[in-house]
Amino acid sequence: MIESRLKDITSLYEQRRQLLENVDKPKIGWLSISTPEEIIYAAGMIPYRITGETRPNFPKASASMHRNLCPYVLSCYEEALDGVHAFASGAVIVNACDTRRRLYDVWKYHEQSKFLHMLDLPKVVNPDSKRYFKMQLKQLVAAMEKHFQCRITDDSLHEAIRFCNETRTLLGELYELRKKGTARISGSQAIRLVKTGMAGLREEFNQRLSRLLSAIKDNPSCDAEKKYRVLLCGSYFDLTNITEIYEAYGAEIVCEDVSTGIKYFEGQVDEKGDPLEALADHYLEKATCARMADSEKRFKHLEDLVEQYAVQSVLYFTLKFCDNNLLDYPFIRKKFNERGIPVFFIEGERSIENIEQVKTRLLAFLESQMGYMHAV
Question: Domains in the chain, ordered, with CATH?
Answer without folding.
Answer: 2-155 (3.40.50.11890)
